[in-house]
Amino acid sequence: GFKKTVYWTKQEIEAHRIANNKDRDKTKLSGVWASDYNAMARKTVLRNLLSKWGILSIEMQEATTSDERVQRVQEDGSIIAETEVEEDIPERKEAEVISEENEDVQTGLFDASNP
Length: 115
Fold this sequence. Notes:
Helices cover 44% and strands 0% of the residues. The protein has 115 residues and is mainly α. Residues 64-115 are annotated as: Disordered.
């Protein structure tokens, strides 16, 4: 067996909360942090512990990641499906080839005989 114990100070939890807060006013308690601070603090420390020392299955890793997503809820309580956003990847273009004529001109600029 293996045991691991982690302790965070309140200042460490606050620093983590503020750094990861997506609201405009990062220092303000909002959402679940305002209504259930202790549970969120425990969750934060536990998730940090698992990410560093826990061996998580693919399913647990995906569940942990999806837990952090902001989801919209309809009036009947059902979750609105998220739409995937595709990245706009720029088209690759060939680099311009520099002719040897330009190289001779450039070399002449730094020639010792040219003051």
